[in-house]
Write a structure and sequence with these properties.
It contains 13 helices and seven strands. The protein is an alpha/beta fold and 386 residues long. It has three domains: 109 residues, Nucleotidyltransferase, domain 5; 93 residues, no CATH class; 153 residues, no CATH class. The strands form two sheets. It has a five-stranded mixed beta sheet with strand order 3-2-1-4-5. A two-stranded antiparallel ribbon has the order 6-7. Helix 4 packs antiparallel against helix 6 and helix 9 packs across helix 13.
């Protein structure tokens, strides 16, 4: 290999092993499997030092997966170009039937050299931490829901039904506390399910309190407050959107963001025939869920409720204007779509797709203002210290 040439390195990363392949720049140039190493950073550093020993400039790629962004951050600290690529966007041949770690690393190196890989956004560590907290709360909600279903299923099997309409209210919990199953063994099972529900409820409450406390110290707190200006987007969903989507200035327009969250329709068109199907559901599922949850609120007439007015307090007028414009448009569009006898779920998804445009617009304003404020602060700091 010639000195100062570029070298594309494909890594197939697992918990305890990493397969390494290097491809020289240029069509038809050598692609060689370097070997399989341990999954630790020290082993990776030794291999990359050997590849850089003759002055080659490295471009490292690996698939996004359970090992996260640790390798990417570690290599970028050493000024090594590293990208994490989206597994769903990696080209695959229809007749390919053999998959091994070695083949995967070779494929990554070849595709990186050809420029056919799509990198994912590398979040800041503070953003990733808040994202983990937000997702932990989602996991707790799912665990709570499962525990409740198990308890209700046990009661239903024994012919015990709650007469009132609303479940899991204070009255419903008092009713559960008074229950006694006929068989002592079943009573043990019943009490275990009750304890599981109570523990899951405490876990949700604890994580919700932590989310509210930690967002105050998060650099993206102004973005969270701005997202809360939108109807249906309160603290939990606002944190989810800010943590999952990050800086929206990396999207050139709202349509790119719509595609990123998988809310655009799939399409299979040819010639004069145009056929669109269900939404793609690609990209970030957590942000998509938060947007669809918020979209349900636009089935009601546009109105600045006291809760929304409190959330608007102290926000820039440009942000509240966008939030009100979103209400006027989406609250009018919901009944028009419903009048076409579309399924309610389809109507809500269409509203969520348009809501993305208003989220994108708010993100542009807030991030630009934050960057300007940070630049002014750093200028003042330099002048004072200089």
């Amino acid at each position: 290999m010639r000195k100062s040439s570029a070298l594309h390195v494909g890594l197939d990363v697992h918990a305890n092993s990493i397969d390494v392949t290097a491809a020289e720049t240029g069509a038809g140039r050598e692609v060689r499997h370097v070997g399989s190493i341990g999954g630790d950073l020290a082993s990776l550093d030794r291999v990359l030092r050997r590849l850089r020993s003759d002055g080659a400039k490295l471009h490292v790629v690996y698939e996004a997966g359970p090992c996260g962004f640790v390798i990417a951050r570690h290599l970028r600290e050493q000024a090594i170009d590293c990208e994490v690529v989206a597994p769903s966007m990696i080209p695959r041949r229809p007749g390919e039937r053999i998959k091994t770690d070695r083949r995967d690393s070779v494929k990554l190196a070849r595709l990186a050299r050809a420029g056919e890989l799509t990198p994912v956004h590398l979040p800041e560590q503070a953003d990733e931490a808040m994202r983990d907290l937000s997702r932990a709360r989602e996991d707790a909600i799912r665990a709570q829901r499962a525990a409740r279903h198990q308890l209700k299923a046990l009661l239903l099997r024994n012919g015990i039904r709650y007469a009132a309409k609303s479940a899991w209210t204070a009255g419903h919990r008092r009713w559960i506390a008074r229950l006694k199953l006929p068989d002592p063994v079943q009573q043990i099972v019943f009490q275990d399910y009750v304890n599981a529900v109570e523990e899951a409820t405490r876990r949700v409450a604890s994580l919700s309190e932590a989310l509210e406390a930690q967002v105050k110290h998060w650099p993206r707190a102004p973005l969270v407050r701005a997202y809360e200006a939108l109807r249906g987007v309160q603290l939990v969903n606002a944190v989810c959107l800010a943590a999952e989507l990050g800086d929206l200035r990396r999207f050139a327009n709202a349509r790119e963001l719509m595609a990123f969250v998988g809310l655009v329709p799939s399409e299979h068109s040819s010639g004069e025939r145009r056929r669109q199907g269900r939404i793609t559901k690609t990209g970030n599922a957590h942000a998509r869920r938060a947007l669809i949850e918020a979209a349900w609120h636009y089935r009601l007439p546009a109105r600045v409720t006291p809760i929304i007015a409190r959330r608007w307090d102290g926000l820039p007028k440009s942000v509240t204007d966008i939030a009100w414009k979103a209400q006027l448009r989406l609250c009018a569009r919901y009944p028009r779509l419903a009048a076409r006898r579309l399924l309610a779920q389809k109507v809500v998804v269409a509203i969520a797709r348009e809501l993305v445009g208003f989220v994108w617009a708010i993100g542009q304003i807030v991030e630009s203002r934050t960057e300007t404020a940070q630049r002014s602060t750093s200028t003042i700091t330099r002048s004072l210290t200089g």
